[in-house]
Amino acid sequence: MQILHSPEEVQKTTREWGGTVALVPTMGALHAGHLSLVEAAQSLADRVVVSIFVNPLQFGPTEDLDKYPRTLEQDASLLGELNVDLLFAPQAAEFYPQGFSTKVSVSGLTASLCGASRPGHFEGVTTVCLKLFQVSNADFAVFGEKDFQQLRVIEQMVDDLNLPVKIIRGAIVRETDGLAMSSRNRYLTAEQRRSAGRVPEAVAAVRRLGADAHVSDVLECARGILGEIEIDYLEVCSEADLRPEAASTALSKIPSPHFFLAVKIGQTRLIDNTPLHGVTP
Ligand code: PAF
Predict the structure, then answer these.
(1) Which CATH number is 183-275's, of 3.40.50.170, 3.30.1330.50, 3.30.1300.10, 3.30.1310.10?
(2) CA 25 to CA 22: how far, in whole Å?
(3) Closest ligand 1 atom number to CA of residue 54
(4) Is any atom of ligand 1 closer than 6 Å to the C-beta of 182?
């Protein structure tokens, strides 16, 4: 596996490869969820690029940029074992040199959910992803469904800007108790980790509600299971527009209804989501 830090070198290398390229953009601290995206990428394209970059643009001033886990050596050895072709690990000062002044912003889909709780976050994500697509010459880019809003925002950007990259969705990978894998799970103390088990419990319970349920049933069900856990948001939205639906709306009236949740356990923010139609519990 080649490891490169310079965007120019990656752009040159991937251009010279010929054949198709699949990109898996990550912020490192890799877990089995990321590795499943790498496997999906390998099944799609001739070559696979994984990027590891803790992108300062997508962190708010009071968020965890400084303490975000950075485990490049370990990550590189995992990716090497998987026979990834290229690991791109830029330095912030080189990826965003002095004078960098462009931002990509998707409206609408970013107004709700994490977009409302984390102002500027999705601008940071779309800006870095557009750069990563350009640098890697990606034909495919694979994103996990755990960050479902992120995935929808990227899909919108790719459509709107006619980017020559196909976005591929990777299913959520869960721990044995159902907690969605996340690099931030490692922040949790043992006790917090136990209460985090309520998050997938809530997700599983709302999936079991029938299509005759209303949004209010979903929200009450989730609230009941989360108990004392601090809720950032609980919403049901249509997958198409991610606009929160009113409590009185029947799920059957929502095209592709999807449940979204964000909670805070101690200082750690956890998110999860699930479709509410056509799901077998
Ligand atoms: O999902 C992530 O890890 C990040 O938001 C991404 C897509 C790598 C952009 O920095």
Answers:
(1) 3.30.1300.10
(2) 10
(3) 10
(4) no
